[in-house]
Amino acid sequence: MRTIQVNLSRNNYKIQIGSGLLSQVGNTLIAMGFRGKAVIITNPTVRALYGEILLSEIRKAGFETVILEVPDGEEYKSLEWAGRLYNQLHDFQTERMTPVLALGGGVIGDLAGFVAATFMRGLPLLQLPTTLLAQVDSSIGGKVAVNHGKLKNTVGTFYQPQIVIADNSVLKTLPGEEIANGMAEIIKYGIIRDQGLFEIIEKNLDNLSAQNESLLEELIARCAAIKAEVVEKDETDLGPRNILNLGHTIGHAIETASDFQIEHGKGVAVGIIAAGKISRNMGILSQPDLERMGKVISEAGLPVRINGLKIADILQAMQHDKKKAGGKVRFVLPKKIGDVFISDEVTVLQVERVLEELI
Ligand code: NAD
Ligand code: GLY
After folding, report:
1. In the predicted model, is pLDDT for residue 278 greater than 90?
2. Cα 244 to middle of ligand 2, angstroms
3. Which residues line the pocket of ligand 2, CB cutoff 6 A?
4. Other CB atoms within 10 A of residue 38 CB
5. Bridge-based pairing state of the strands 163-167 and 125-129
6. What is the average per-residue pLDDT within 285-311?
7. What's the distance, CA 350 to chain centroid?
8. Minimal CA–CA distance to 104: which of 139, 156, 57?
9. With a 6 A CB cut-off, is 130 part of the ligand 1 pocket?
């Protein structure tokens, strides 16, 4: 098992990465000082694969436990489903120290995290991410949220988990498409901070499968370490943490404009290409680095362009970006592979020009 520490001003926690960790969660809860009740929030897909194993392990450790299910899909990351979960937590007579275990991908992590943050003004949260994307990104750093209408992640808060337990053996059941979605965030980390990581991805493009446990463990650990370091510097995303949003300004807008039919990883992939092209058009990113980015993204099974959306809808969705400051949309742009800069000066015209090539 690898352990990465996240040290924040108000709380510290561990990210554990390793094979078989889910079967130890009962003991982990005891070691963390929990007793009595525990709540698992998951979806039917993940429940069928890992819910019952987790439930029996936690019961064996002496906990009275319930599994709360949310249907599978981004559209259920909503206030309506948060409300349903509040009712079920009330029915279970949840107490303020009852831990909430978020078992699933980023959708479950964000929704269960939001519910844990708000029910009874905060229940202890354990993130048990089961997708590659959630293990490298969404389970770490405390961003929890629901979508509101067409607005992505608009209602939320920062609420750190007490531990992140990333059991990489569960990735074996992940469809190839979801491995690709996780790769979008891993490629992002390489571009923003870690040229060496980017080179590992380039060298292993033929081995990027859910069965390659040791490669995935290495990638997860490197990304988690970068995320921990960035979040430690800027927990509430007012400055340095913005770099984690490479590809997300246009990526989120693509997700929104597609009514969430295009998944987060795919939106981010096209968003990274768009950011690369904007930087290239400014004369900053080199053509060879832009081409390397495009090659890695497409060979990881991700799109480098998207058909069927209207540019006007994407521009409209971008106006709701949470990084907007003083009326200007903030962009993270690659300088070179391994380094980025932040710009508030990208014009609508510059964005339109690249979207015309990509949409
Ligand atoms: P997801 O949660 O929808 O999971 C993808 C699919 O994989 C689902 O169908 C799920 O049921 C299935 N699945 C999960 N684990 C599985 C397993 N081990 N085996 C087989 N199938 C499995 O999608 P995601 O890509 O994990 O997360 C996307 C969400 O994360 C978006 O809502 C995005 O906004 C959010 N996000 C949040 C942050 C953050 O910092 N909070 C960062 C990035 C993304
Ligand atoms: N996924 C972006 C962040 O956590 O800040």
Report:
1. yes
2. 5
3. 137, 141, 143, 237, 241, 244-245
4. 27
5. parallel
6. 97
7. 28
8. 139
9. yes
Residues 169-204: b if buried by 16+ CB within 10 A, e if exposed: bbbeebeeebbbbbbbbbbbbbbbbbeebbebbeee
Our answer on whether the CB atom of 46 is closer than 6 Å to any ligand 1 atom is: yes
Instruction: Say yes or no: CB of residue 183 within 6 Å of ligand 1.
Output: no
127 vs 161: CA distance, rounded Å: 6
How many Cβ atoms sit within 10 Å of the Cβ of residue 277?
A: 22
pLDDT at residue 162, as a whole number: 98
Task: Determine the distance separating the centroid of ligand 1 and the alpha carbon of 333, expressed in angstroms.
Answer: 25
17 alpha carbon to ligand 1 midpoint, in Å?
17
Ligand nearest to C-alpha 183: 1
Ligand nearest to the CA of 144: 1
Q: What are phi and psi of 292, to 5 degrees?
A: -60, -40
Atom of ligand 1 nearest to the CA of 143: 41
Does this model's pTM top 0.85? My answer is yes
By most ligand atoms within 8 Å of CB, the mutation choice from 143, 185, 226, 249 for ligand 2 is 143
CA distance 281 to 353: 10
Helices (H), 234-305: 248-257, 264-281, 287-299
Q: Is 58 exposed, middle or buried (0-12, 13-18, 19+ CB in 10 A)?
A: buried
Q: 74 C-alpha to center of ligand 1: Å? A: 8
Q: How confident is the model at residue 320 (pLDDT cuts 50, 70, 90)?
A: confident
Half-sphere exposure of 67 (CA within 13 A, CB side): 21
pLDDT mean across residues, the chain: 96
322 has a pLDDT exceeding 80: no
Amino acid at 353: R
SS3 state of residue 236: coil
Degrees to nearest 5, angle at CA 231 with 226 and 232: 100
Q: Is the CB of 102 under 6 A from ligand 1?
A: no
Atom number, ligand 2, closest to the C-alpha of residue 185: 1
Q: What is the mean pLDDT of residues 93-112?
A: 98
